Amino acid sequence: MLAERLSISVEVFRGNTADPATSGGSGDQAQGRFGIERIAWVGDRGMLTSARIERVLKPQGMDWVSSLRAPQIAQLAAEHGPFQPSLFDERNLLELTSQHFPDERLVVCLAPCWPERARKRLELLAATEADLCKIAMTTPSARATAA
């Protein structure tokens, strides 16, 4: 039933607190308050660290949705070879397994806008470098002023 899968609780924490510390007993509180049998955490790897997953979520039988860090993504790409566009389904998703993440469901998302973002980033870096070179040419160096 759809109603059984809807979010029923959201908590907002202070911004100056480390992510792993913010969700301390929230799962236990939600389970007791709403009579929930199963909880799925959704957060980035700042909040859902590998250590937190291993020490808290897995032992309590909780589920989670998170992202991998860049080195882990590179590791998956090396393990499975380049992710060719033809491997993705109609929603631009690809499900795979990895020896580095046993018993976890991994989903790779193909974001068509990424090449454009990478191109724009390179253009911005080149423009910034050009501006910095102009500034460097017009600014006296420390050696020149000491002489």
Task: Note down, in words, how this protein is organized.
The chain is mainly alpha-helical. It folds into three domains: 1-67, no CATH class; 68-110, no CATH class; 111-147. Helix content is 42%, strand content 10%. The protein has six helices and four strands. The protein has helices spanning 19-22, 26-34, 50-57, 70-80, 114-138, 142-146, and strands spanning 40-42, 63-65, 93-96, 106-109. A two-stranded parallel ribbon has the order 1-2. A two-stranded antiparallel ribbon has the order 3-4.
Nutshell version of this structure?
The protein is mainly alpha-helical. It contains six helices and four strands; from the N terminus they run H-H-E-H-E-H-E-E-H-H.
Name its key features.
two-stranded antiparallel ribbon, 147 residues, 4 strands, two-stranded parallel sheet, mainly alpha, 10% strand, single chain
> How many separate helices?
6
Number of domains: 3
Strand order of the largest sheet: 1-2
| Cα shape | extended
Task: Give the percentage of residues in beta strands.
Answer: 5-15%
How helical, in percent, are the residues? 40-55%
Strand pairing plus helix content: what structural class? mainly alpha
Number of strands: 4
**Could you spell the SSE succession in H and E letters?**
HHEHEHEEHH
Largest sheet: 2 strands, parallel
Q: Give the overall average pLDDT.
A: 78
Gyration radius, rounded: 23 Å
N- to C-terminal separation? 80 Å
Runs in which pLDDT lies below 50 for 5 or more consecutive residues are none
